[in-house]
Design brief:
The protein is built from 29 helices and 37 strands. By secondary structure, it is of the alpha/beta class. Strands 15-14-25-26-27-12-13-37 form an 8-stranded mixed beta sheet, covered by helices on one side. The radius of gyration is 29 Å and the shape is globular. The structure holds iron/sulfur cluster (3 copies) and FE2/S2 (inorganic) cluster (FES).
Length: 948
Amino acid sequence: MSLVEDIDYGTPAAKSGKTVELTIDGMQVKVAEGTSIMRAAMEMGTEIPKLCATDMLDAFGSCRLCLVEIEGRNGTPASCTTPVAQGMVVHTQTPRLKQLRKGVMELYISEHPLDCLTCSANGDCELQDMAGAVGLREVRYGYEGKRHPNPGIDASNPYFTFEPAKCIVCSRCVRACEEVQGTFALTIAGRGFGSVVSPGMEESFLASECVSCGACVQACPTATLNEKSVIEIGTPEHSVVTTCAYCGVGCSFKAEMRGEEIVRMVPYKEGKANRGHSCIKGRFAYGYASHKDRILNPMIREKITDPWREVSWDEAIDYAASEFRRIQAKYGRGAIGGITSSRCTNEETFLVQKLVRAAFGNNNVDTCARVCHSPTGYGLKTAYGTSAGTQDFDSVEHSDVILVIGANPTDGHPVFGSRMKKRLREGAKLIVIDPRRIDLVRTPHVEAQYHLPLRPGTNVAMLTALAHVIVTEGLVNEAFVRERCAWDEFQDWAEFVSDPRHSPEVVAALTGVDPELVRGAARLYATGGNGAIYYGLGVTEHSQGSTTVLAIANLAMATGNIGRPGVGVNPLRGQNNVQGSCDMGSFPHELPGYRHVAEDTTRTLFESLWGRSLDSEPGLRIPNMIDAAIDGSFKGIYIQGEDILQSDPNTQHMVAGLSSMECVVVQDLFLVETANYAHVFLPGSTFLEKNGTFTNAERRIQLVRKVMSPRNGYEDWQITQRLANALGYPMSYTHPREIMDEIATLTPTFANVSFARIEKMGSVQWPCNDAAPEGTPVMHIDGFVRGKGKFVRTEYIATEERTGPRFPLLLTTGRILSQYNVGAQTRRTANVLWHDEDILEIHPFDAEQRGIRDGDRVRVASRAGETTLRAKISDRMALGVVYTTFHHPGTQANVVTTDFSDWATNCPEYKVTAVQVSPSNGPSEWQVEYRKHSAQSRRVKKPLVPAE
Ligand code: SF4
Ligand code: SF4
Ligand code: SF4
Ligand code: FES
């Protein structure tokens, strides 16, 4: 194995469709108009020496190393900043150029510390490479030249260091932070020779605005910005391309290795979801894989009050299987079920649902998408015919108006957030609908034209008001609607939204938003060119989550914003494989490919291949399983990679459900909170230790490649397979590619998907079948998958969760950049430096009324329960609204959230909980109790003889 090398073309690709022909060093070359000479040369294999240029950034032209000669032109222009021209004749290597380049390098080297042998970038340094490339053999000025200012090494960031002594002031880092990441955290301070790179106002990296995306580290041609892991371990010797296991963006990375140790994760430029960029989580937060808390041996116990007992894999699997069979014999076939994970691969998810349907013999399978994007599946399938987003991420580059509702891309989907910000800096307009003033509303060089800070729970009223303006002001794209949608349904909908009760002026009483802002936003979306909607859990996690998705779908159809690049309806998926886990048949009513279990032909197809008859009745959803457990009819569950105790609402209800079961099997990396109520613990593997595929938010199926052996001994699909075999249902896959072949055989939208095809193409966006052999980046181009687009009336129904004298504030929850979901992984990395506890954000007026000061510990109480945490006074919050994250089990924000859920899918209403906030001087009773139980439950009795 060797290192996967990204070719650096020096400058970004030109976008023009026209080509230009020129001659470089005697060879004819044809390139796109606008291409730089440097890139044109590289495309034909000639590398012109360079230092300040890299193809992730616009050309800058500062180092003067890339000089060329052009026949008929005077001087020696920089090839990075000079575009090609028809008939141009270029020479990249002449005696004059050689002399000039040596002179430039002599100056650089005379100022640079010559500690190459002990430098962490030795062998991976572009300055070193260029000294070689220009044939530098002597430095006439000696090696003790004047040095740039050296404020000393900044090691404040836990993941990388900044050593200014090695800086050549090429400004690649500054430009990467601006152009790629869009944070503008770095500047060049000082002037001339006194110039030095500086984070923020000459602060440390940690104290600055830096969000640790690593783009500057990647761009730096020297060791000035360098990963601490490289300093500690040394340079890598091989790399494997794989896919990030955190969020639904699905960034591609090169895992650069020494043996089985990761040296660093480098974003892969060929990755079509991330195009060479990353965020702090994917790039740096992989240390959890080797954290001491990892459980590597299977464990069992009879009662949840017993300590765990380490056992062999055989014993653990046999025990789980015999318990499941015992329970079924005693309580019936439907008394057990399973939960698949959106953190696991498609193949693993497919196997768990197959295990439940074929080996358990029921449809009691559900997934964590239940609690996040199930309304997306329902809404988009109803309106358009497919339970997925309509665009690829590249599409945003063609958007003129971007409407973000209930999503916080710069925290939740950071790499896509950066691409969005880039498009906004280029001039696209922005509408944000969110109770909080999220970063996008005003961030360097980006400002929303409209921010509609609505009251939580009023999305449907707001979207219907936008539709009201579009219809009543004659802004509907009638030609599109007549051609592509059911006209009678449109007319019915248009009549509905036109009712004066849906006007922004009337609706303002519900949403609290100035009607003029609503009218302006509606006009902008409908008439501003390509309009794209991006949404997140702020849309779905409501009692009207599905209605909101339908309202969004209506808006896009009414304005003709569907079926081409730059437009569309784009759910930003939370976890890495939410799309995939839904595609793979994780819902109790649907087989893979979103086909209802009651469809006879589909069921027969599965039955003939799986050799078992399948239940035609939908099974239980997660909340139903928990309710049934409390009622005594549901007794056993297999949970792969989900921490439902922490992630699902109304924690105390969940505890009651799990405690009522007789066999809870948890397969995970750590003793997560759910494991406190488990009887069998099966240690899981990380994404670094397995093969398979993930499907990101743009339906892109990408390979996950094993970069190290599973420390627990097995990939997760192998564990499910062992359990199936122990239950008497034979499975004998030898590699996940065989599972994908089975998925392709059974699922029309995946018909042409295979590991070989993904390997060849890099990634594939479903549908991928004979009708679309190369996959489908943009959907519904010539028509909707369901035929005619369906308009649906979206009547606003206020949630039953109301504020009142006892609970006067509305709590809404979300996530932040450095942490991921329940935090089981990111809390076990240095990311805790940025967020080591959940914080309650509260408006200054609400805080003052309650005598709460910044940093005070406060009690948050709802009808469901109460918890305590620290308060942060923030004017980002609307009056009457408080916000927190749910990353820390010490807080357990979900103790407070309630059982209310979406009418169609049961997706919990996390985003609206009526609460009261008051000063507190200690943990709540629940927190004290839970901590006690948790400590007791995590006791492990070591075996006298070590397990296998
Ligand atoms: S790590 Fe990212 S945000 Fe921080 S300075 Fe570098 S490019 Fe900017
Ligand atoms: S820190 Fe690196 S990228 Fe930034 S100016 Fe210095 S040498 Fe260039
Ligand atoms: S967490 Fe998301 S945005 Fe960050 S690197 Fe991973 S996939 Fe990319
Ligand atoms: S690479 Fe062209 S001027 Fe630096």
